Amino acid sequence: MIEDNLILQNWRQQKEIFTTNLLISRKRPTKSSVHDLRVAVKKIRSYLRLKRKISGEDWRELFSTILALFKSFGKLSDFDVYLTLIRGQERKEHLSFDNFREYLTVNRALTRKWVRQDAIKFNTQELDMLDQQFNLNLTDKELHVKILQYSISKIKKVEILSRHFHKNAHKIRKQLKDVYHLIKICPQDFTENFIRIKSFDQMLKNLGSWQDHYVLRKKINQYTKDLAKNEEKDILKILDTKLAGVQDDLLAKAKHKWKSMIDQAALKKAAI
Predict the structure, then answer these.
(1) 108 in Cβ contact with 86 (< 8 Å)
(2) Is the pLDDT of residue 265 over 70?
(3) How distant, in Å, are the alpha carbons of 148, 190, 220 from that of 193?
């Protein structure tokens, strides 16, 4: 029985990050504690998906309470994103969205209170229950191969999705995030043989920023429909148009990176 492996080591690291930021959030959720806990959960979920691919065992029931906390933290993270982007647009365009910004600020404060309560209620034993999920009887070299095979299968899915890049942008990002979290724990020379990491990183940043603008535009449309005063609506429409343009630019950059990221010959060779 192999008692330690690459996935188990990284699980322990992400578990510690999760716990540290959970404790911070029980006092007062901060932008960084919310972000870091959510990133840890995303990485853990990627490890679990690989594990299911290897063993066929389902883990979703064990993960359900962690996922609920992740979603709760996501609501606060969204408000942080909204306010960061709004303030950036105010500086860049010399516009003012006072009422909308105040609405976001008030709702962020309320959401922070709910998130803090969710952090306090969360039982850390839920995290401990996942410990046994990563006791894979594989050497690191064997895991590298499994990660490569899993990554190739994901990338092939993205190749199909990328035929309609704009329509499938969110799905593409989700698929590639899984790949990214796994190949980042492998030796660089192992993964560079079939994928360009720097281009991959930049592509995901572009898609992440695209997603941020997407959720902000949804919030603007909701606010405009339900709460905005008549004098606000025109300026919010201008803002929405500007954000749409930024989205298009980010998506074009991501699509370009995707085309340059994959060495098709190396990928085909690795898949054999």
Answers:
(1) no
(2) no
(3) 11, 6, 43
Sign of CA dihedral 150, 255, 171, 165: negative
pTM given for the model: 0.91
| Per-domain boundaries in the chain | 1-138, 139-272
For 12-49, the pLDDT digits (tens) are 999 999 999 999 999 999 999 999 999 999 999 999 99
HEC profile of the chain: CCCCCHHHHHHHHHHHHHHHHHHHHHHCCCHHHHHHHHHHHHHHHHHHHHHHHHHCCCCHHHHHHHHHHHHHHHHHHHHHHHHHHHHHHHHHHCCCCHHHHHHHHHHHHHHHHHHHHHHHHCCCHHHHCCHHHHCCCCCHHHHHHHHHHHHHHHHHHHHHHHHHCCCCHHHHHHHHHHHHHHHCCCCHHHHCCCECHHHHHHHHHHHHHHHHHHHHHHHHHHHHHHCCCHHHHHHHHHHHHHHHHHHHHHHHHHHHHHHHHECHHHHHHHHC
Arithmetic mean of pLDDT, 196-220? 93
Work out whether the CA dihedral 181, 207, 92, 78 comes out positive or negative: negative
Q: How far apart are the first and last CA of the chain?
A: 29
The maximal CA–CA distance of the chain, rounded, in angstroms, is: 69
- Portion of the chain with pLDDT greater than 90, in percent: 60
Q: pLDDT per residue over 174-185, tens digit each?
A: 999 999 999 888
Cβ neighbours of residue 65 closer than 8 Å, sequence gap 6 or more: 122, 123, 126
State the Cα–Cα distance between residues 168 and 248, nearest whole angstrom: 14
